[in-house]
Design brief:
By secondary structure, this protein is mainly alpha-helical. The protein is 53% helix and 0% strand. Helix 1 packs across helix 2 (35-45).
C-alpha cells in the first residue's frame, strides 16, 4: 500500500527518504544544499535528518 501524503502523523519526520524526490528536495532547501549533496550525506551517514545535518555542517 502506498503512502497517503495527505495523512501525516509525524512518525518519520526524523528521517529523509532518499527514494522520494520531494523529500530530498525539501531537505536540500532546508539545509541550503543540492539534492546530490543530500543523497551523498545519506550514503555516508544514513537517513537520519540529524546525522545528515551534522554531516553537512562538517561536525
Amino acid at each position: 500500500m502506498a503512502d497517503n501524503k495527505n495523512k501525516q502523523d509525524g512518525r518519520d519526520d526524523s528521517k529523509i527518504d532518499a527514494n522520494d524526490s520531494s523529500e530530498v528536495a525539501y531537505a536540500a532547501k532546508e539545509f541550503g544544499v543540492t539534492a546530490a549533496k543530500i543523497k551523498e550525506a545519506i550514503q555516508a551517514v544514513g537517513n537520519s535528518r540529524a546525522e545528515v545535518k551534522k554531516y553537512l555542517s562538517g561536525k
